[in-house]
């Protein structure tokens, strides 16, 4: 689905002090992959590079096995940290935006697209809110609308940048349950940035740890817990061991 080979990126024009250096990564169709790393390690920068908002200094990016040209926007769906719902548009009209930006006969007529969004809103527990404005919704509801808008793009590869970072613990738990059920049915490939180690373990097939120093190399961890996943797994000794392993790798300290 996605491969990066020796990706390097620096914000400076002279290509000095790279934020990301020699990063290689392979993502298979249908995988759920979390990206973790300390603040400033380049997680959001990586997403901007994959989405084509930034161009790498060197590296080839392949999506669906094809080498990407300079314009990758439209190959992936990107949900940034803030929900970026337009406050003057209703829930339904916010969800229509991807279709409005990319009108093609193959993407259906407006009526069909609206009917599809309405079906999805029901599925997302937002059926009653299609005519509401973003300021009338709770934090969790706004995130679900933003996620639905990301899905409506029709892309198979979703880049989700800390989608639940601003939510309280209870709402976050509800969103995890909801996302796990939904992801089982959707067969989408997800790259998911998070600072929450338990969230990363609960949701992911694999986790990539970005290094705090770019030249230290990315680490990869397999989450070999069975699916479907449930919250009770948090208390499973294997889950606790994975969490401890992740903490040690992230902070390079022993916590026992
Ligand atoms: N537009 C920019 N110009 C120059 N430097 C930038 C720019 N955007 C980000 N940076 C720098 O790049 C580094 C990585 O930033 P990035 O936002 O990718 O980190 P992050 O791992 O996503 O951080 P966080 O977890 O805090 O969201 C930081 O040092 C940041 O200051």
UniProtKB/TrEMBL annotation:
- Tell me the organism: Paenibacillus antarcticus
Q: What is this protein called?
A: ABC transporter ATP-binding protein
Question: Domain ABC transporter: where?
Answer: 2-237
Q: What keyword terms does UniProt attach to this protein? A: ATP-binding, Nucleotide-binding, Transport
Q: Report the Pfam families cross-referenced here.
A: ABC_tran
| PANTHER family the UniProt entry points to | ABC TRANSPORTER ATP-BINDING PROTEIN, TAURINE IMPORT ATP-BINDING PROTEIN-RELATED
Tell me which InterPro entries the record gives: AAA+_ATPase, ABC_transporter-like_ATP-bd, ABC_transporter-like_CS, ABC_transporter_ATP-bind, P-loop_NTPase
Instruction: From the UniProt annotation, give the residues forming the signal peptide.
Output: none
Is ATP-binding among the key words of this record?
yes
Select a single GO molecular function from the record's annotations and give it.
ATP hydrolysis activity
The record ties this protein, via SMART domains, to:
AAA (SM00382)
